[in-house]
Design brief:
mainly alpha
């Protein structure tokens, strides 16, 4: 439990740091916002930390984790593309779009968990 609590606080600190940096960019260097979007879109550190943790904890779950991550990142690309189109063409109010994508994301997680959670364990 101690290890999980420590990691939880590390992730909170990293997230707070990202938002603080975003605020700094918005106030002082707004021309760097597209670069920030690119950097956060390519943020590989979280999967790397997860990979290292799983590799050190239970190596037999490493390949299923990596395969599921590939599927998850593909679906993330699809959702981000749909989000972009919805925002670009103003299909709905921004709040409805955001709430809708949160619900859609949770729905996709439930579908994956219910139907495909054991897909890569064999």
């Amino acid at each position: 439990m101690k290890n999980i609590t420590f990691q939880f606080f590390i992730y909170i600190i990293l997230l707070a740091g990202l938002f603080t940096f975003l605020d700094y960019l918005l106030d002082n260097h707004p021309n760097l916002i597209p670069s920030f979007g690119f950097m956060t879109g390519c943020f590989i550190f979280t999967p790397l930390i997860q990979y290292i943790y799983i590799r050190n904890t239970d190596k037999k779950l490493l390949i299923p984790f990596l395969k599921s991550s590939i599927i998850g990142y593909f679906l993330l690309f699809v959702l981000i593309s749909l989000f972009y189109v919805a925002i670009l063409y103003r299909l709905l109010n921004d709040y409805y779009i955001i709430y809708g994508f949160v619900i859609l994301n949770l729905f996709i997680w439930c579908i994956y968990y219910y139907f495909f959670k054991d897909l890569f364990l064999n």
